[in-house]
Model the fold of this input.
Amino acid sequence: MATAATGRAGDSSAPDQSGGDSGTAPTVPDSDAGGTTAPNGAPARGGRLPRSARRKQLMAAAQEVFVANGYFDLATPYLATEYTFNHLQLDPALTRNIRLEHYESGHMVYIHKPSLLKMTSDVAAFYQSALPEK
Done:
């Protein structure tokens, strides 16, 4: 299975889990389970954003998703991909942004020439659709 997205999300600033002093201000949980704030109410350095802010950031970053699956892929079966996406309980407005494509190949789509050509065309169209219109 290959995936591509037109955005990138991630929070590389995780709280120090080593038990040692990380040099940051003490933090207290905020009202939105999972986030932290410094005693003065500001977001803690190295702390996580509140859940609602993390979700908003993720949804803004991953606006389009392309998934390529080979029908004969035993490493990442296409039905497992479909099952996963069907059970994410996404808002219908978001499911329009997920594009699942299937190819007459195994895990290494590029070995089967017709699948390689089709995937190249599909990925090019996917990226083209992400560009602003002129």
Q: What stands out?
A: The radius of gyration is 20 Å. Residues 7-34 have pLDDT under 50 and may be disordered. The beta strands are 2-5, 28-29, 36-37, 65-70, 98-103. The first helix runs from residue 51 to 61.
